[in-house]
Each structure stands twice: as C-alpha cells, then as structure tokens.
Amino acid sequence: MAYKSILTIITDAAVAESPLAHATALAAAQDAHVEAMCLGVDRTQTGYYYAGANALILQETLTRAHKEADELLELTKGILSKSSVRWAADTGVAPFADLARHVALHARFSDLVILPKPYGENRGAELEPVVEAALFDADAPVLVVPDDAQPNPTPEQIIVAWNQSKEALSAIRAAMPFLKQAKLVRIVVVDPPAHGPERSDPGGLLSQMLARHDITCEIDVVSKTLPRVSDVLNRHVTDKNADMIVMGAYGHSRFREAILGGATRNMLEQASVPVLMAH
Prior knowledge:
The chain has about 280 residues and is an alpha/beta fold. It is built from 9 helices and 10 strands.
C-alpha cells in the first residue's frame, strides 16, 4: 500500500516550496509520480465592474492571471527538475469563484494532495478554497504542510484524532501508507462520551483494526482542559514530539460542506506539523 499519484496545487509563489519539497520527498520514498498544477487565479469579480466597462478590462485581468501561471510554472519546474522523481507540471487559469471545479478535476484522480497551510500572514485568499475543493469536492485526502516543516516521508510517531466519526475513519484509511511505516501511532480520544458503543473501551476497536495491519499503537484518553479540541491535540503533539496528525475534516453544515468547520480551521491555523485530513 503506497501513494502512487501525488498532486500539489500551486497558486502562490511565496508558499510553493514547502508542498513541493514534501511531494518530492514522499514520491522518492514511495516510487510515486508528482503532478503540479500551477493555477493563475483571476481574483477580480466581474459583477462589480462599473457600468460600461469594456472587454479590454476583462482581457487585462485574464492576461495577468496567465502571466502569473507561467511564472509559477517556471518556479515549479526549477524545483522539480532538481529531484530524481517522475513529475509533470502544467498551467491553468481559473476565476476565483470557479476554483473548486478546476481543483476537483485534478484532485479526484490523486492518491494524496499536498498543500500549504491556508491561514497565516501573507497568504492569498485562494488557499482556503483550494483546500476545501480537494477535500469536499474531490473527496481526496489532503496533507497540509506548514512552511517550516521539514519533509519527512516516514514519520515515526503519528497522532490520530479519534472521535468515532466516519470522517476520522476516512482519514485513518487514507493515512495507511504513513501509519504502516510509523514506529508508534497514538490514538488520541478527547473526553470520550459516557454513552455509546465505545464507552467502556475508547479507541479499542480502532486499535484492533490497526494492529491487524502490524501497526504498533497506543490509546491516549485525554481531558479537554483547553477551550478547543484542536488546542488539546496540538499540545499533545508537542508533549509527545509527534511528527504528524491524522484527523477528519468537517464542514460547517451538511448543506454547505465546502466551508471548513471550526475544529478543522483551528487545527490548520495552529498546527506545527503536517496534518493529513479526509472527509
């Protein structure tokens, strides 16, 4: 079991190096193919143009987006050409409002999508919808990497956030290539419910499933001593010196899942290690 098709979406040169470095390192370790999609984003909103605006203005915004895509392609080729992995890079242009369709078209055929953190200083507004599109529209697992995280294709200690949800289980299944190579997987249960099928053995069935894949795991039942679950998980990462977090991704509602929910957003804002998510 391995990732064979790894995708990264490049929309911002300032945060391109980290996902490309992680993608090439993982591809080298798992004999995978890296695909980089360099998207020039037309960030204007045509509906707000003044009455009488002509086609030249529209053409100018498209020309600017094409130029941006070409510059991102040159940067990407310069980085990927220094690696020994199989890779391909292409360009495209997308209006900001239509990002999801372009991202989903490529992401749904990938085993793993590696993207930069969507939140932080000097980040474009398009980074969040790119993550959302890969997760919710393409149903692809996404590895979000901090800018300063060193590529580590074989993390030794991984924290799995377990809350008995289908999203968490989807993330765990998607993370199997990482989990099977880890020295220790910590199943972290924050304030397990007093009622439910796992009330007497939180994480027990999951640990059994992982053990049958020869994965060494431990169960950490912790209290929610901080305001948010993401705070507890991030503190546990620091306390245990973990290399990665695996967790489910959640939307704000079942009717509009393409908006990252509070727990997911908080985790991506604060995480100091790569976070693998799936929906």
